[in-house]
Structure formats: structure tokens, C-alpha cells
Design brief:
This protein is mainly α. It contains 16 helices and no strands.
Length: 326
């Protein structure tokens, strides 16, 4: 495997300068930004291991070389390729590690015990559940990601920036995470501007279930959460309503479980910041430009609003509306 990776990344030969200049321009964030984005897993402070899943479920630190003034371009870009090789190897190992850990966790549950039952009875913590969930998601992506790597070779880091759906979470580079968040928040903002509620009365209702949603409301939730690719809106006139309603229903059920699991296992105050960001994103909340205190606050507001409002209703409104609902 190591030999294949080295060949694919061009470590056994010197790629053209133009290729790696393109790679560098598209992948490297400014040094300060990159350091903050890529070391999230390394700087995590463990507050509560029942609410925070293992750090192996997140991308490893991406440590990139700094080119010295006297260093030649081929030498620098070979080192750059080795850095990405190390990052992807670590990510691939994490997928396997998480898979084995999730198997061990599920194997100790009583036969025929569902995840909701296990969470309710305290047989699973939120951390263990999120480990199982993220491992399953990553395992599904491994075959296609491996195929992309085999085809693209040394261009893989450049290509996967635009192919988030095929990359396991543990193999996502900082530029890719940033790009995903920017695109999703821009899409969410456009959808909110188009309108999400039929009337002021509906805006003030606390209960709004999936079966009550109109087509445009399903579309908004789908866009806000990234439940279907944007290309369906551009080229196919939208996403099939029946399929979208089923996806929204599954996501609503997931958030209902996660809301209870967060509070039961320590609350927002015990969550590490990257987990807070992920939880906020999963609830259709913007995270870019928000500081840690603001993000913790809005997630706490969500959980407080959930005491008398449905998940579906909150997904259709901004936090400023939640306190006005009866």
C-alpha cells in the first residue's frame, strides 16, 4: 500500500513544476489559517468522553512543509506530496480503527437492541453512538475514495476538494472542510431568503411535523442541511419529493436522538469545540464567523427551544424566531 501511495503521489519521480504549482495554489491555506484549521484534532481538550466521540473520528493534523528561500521547487513539492501521503495514511488507518472499535461496541449490546433503545437505557453513550455512526458513514465511502485515488494519483488532493461526498471524514483536508461549509451556508442563506413558512401563524406554531411540510419547505430543509446535491436544482428541476421527505424524516429522528444524548451525557458545556461546530451544522446553523461562545450559545438555545418545539419547526426558522414561538 505504501509503495502504491508513493507512486501515485509522484514520490518516485519528479512531477512537473506546473502540476504542483496548481496543487499548491488550490490546496494551501494561508499558514496561520491552515494551522488553526488543521490542528483541530490535535488541540482537542477532553472534557467528557461520554459526549465527545474519539478524536480518531475527525481528520488528523495536516502538517505541511514550509519552503525555504534556497529550496528548489521539485524538492519542496516532493516534501509536500509526502505530507499529504502521511495525512491520507493516517486517515485510512483511522477508518479501520474506528470500524474495529464500533464493532466491539455494538457486539456488547444485547441481541435485537436498537440504537434508540440502547441510548435510552444508557447502554450506549453519545460518544459511542457517534463513533458507530461516523464509522459506518466512512466505511461506505472507502471504495469510491480508493477508486478516485487510483485514477487521479498525485492529483487526488486537488480533485477531492470538489468531491466531498466520496471522502471519509477522517481524510478531509482543511481546505475541503472550509469549502464545504462556505457552500452549504451560502445555499442555506439563499433558501431562507426565498421563504420557509406559509404564514405568521405557522411561524408561531410550536409543532410542525414532517408530514405537515409543503414541498417548498422540504426543499428548504434539504438545501439547508445538504440532504441532496445542488446539481438536482440546477439541472433536474429539483429532487424527488417522496425521497426528500423520507430523508428529512430520518434526519429529524437522528436529531431528536442526538438532542437527548447531548443533554444526558453532559450537555453543550462539556462538548469540545469541533463537536459543537458539527452539531450546529447538523441542525442547520451557521458556524463560519462565529466565535466559540456564540456557537455554544446558539446550540444551547436550540436544546432549550426543543423542550416545546419540534425539530422540523426549528429547521425552518432562524434562532431569532425560537423565543417568539408558543
Amino acid at each position: 500500500m505504501t509503495v502504491v501511495f508513493q507512486c501515485r503521489l509522484g514520490l518516485t519521480h519528479t512531477p512537473t513544476k506546473a502540476i504542483y504549482q496548481t496543487l499548491s495554489r488550490n490546496l494551501l491555506l494561508p499558514r496561520q489559517t491552515l494551522r488553526l484549521a488543521s490542528t483541530a484534532a490535535a488541540t482537542r481538550v477532553v472534557h467528557n468522553t461520554t459526549v465527545n466521540p474519539p478524536s480518531s473520528t475527525l481528520p488528523a493534523p495536516l502538517v505541511l512543509p514550509v519552503r525555504s528561500p534556497s529550496q528548489s521547487a521539485p524538492s519542496y513539492y516532493i516534501l509536500l506530496g509526502k505530507a499529504y501521503l502521511a495525512f491520507y495514511k493516517t486517515g485510512a488507518k483511522a477508518v479501520y480503527t474506528n470500524f474495529k472499535a464500533s464493532q466491539a461496541t455494538t457486539s456488547r449490546l444485547p441481541p435485537s437492541t436498537s440504537i434508540p433503545d440502547a441510548l435510552e437505557k444508557g447502554l450506549l453513550s453519545r460518544a459511542e453512538w457517534q463513533l458507530i455512526r461516523r464509522s459506518r458513514q466512512d466505511i461506505k465511502k472507502v471504495p469510491l475514495f480508493a477508486l478516485v485515488f487510483m485514477i487521479c494519483g498525485e492529483f487526488t488532493p486537488l480533485v477531492v476538494v470538489f468531491m466531498a461526498g466520496v471522502v471519509p471524514r477522517t481524510c478531509m483536508i482543511p481546505k475541503q472542510v472550509q469549502r464545504m461549509r462556505e457552500k452549504l451556508e451560502a445555499r442555506r442563506g439563499r433558501s431562507f431568503r426565498d421563504g420557509t413558512l406559509e404564514s405568521e401563524d405557522q411561524a408561531l406554531r410550536s409543532t410542525l411535523e414532517v408530514d405537515d411540510l409543503k414541498g417548498f419547505q422540504l426543499v428548504h430543509i434539504g438545501r439547508s442541511l445538504g440532504l441532496y446535491p445542488e446539481l438536482f436544482d440546477r439541472f433536474f428541476g429539483g429532487f424527488p419529493t417522496a425521497v426528500l421527505r423520507a430523508r428529512v424524516r430520518r434526519w429529524k429522528e437522528y436529531l431528536e436522538l442526538d438532542d437527548v444524548a447531548i443533554e444526558k451525557n453532559g450537555g453543550v458545556g462539556q462538548m469540545e469545540m469541533e463537536e459543537v461546530r458539527i452539531a450546529a451544522e447538523e441542525r442547520g446553523l451557521d458556524v463560519l464567523g462565529e466565535n466559540d461562545t456564540q456557537l455554544r450559545g446558539v446550540l444551547k438555545d436550540w436544546l432549550a427551544a426543543r423542550k416545546n418545539q419540534s425539530v422540523t419547526k426549528l429547521l425552518l426558522t432562524r434562532p431569532s424566531i425560537w423565543a417568539k414561538t408558543h
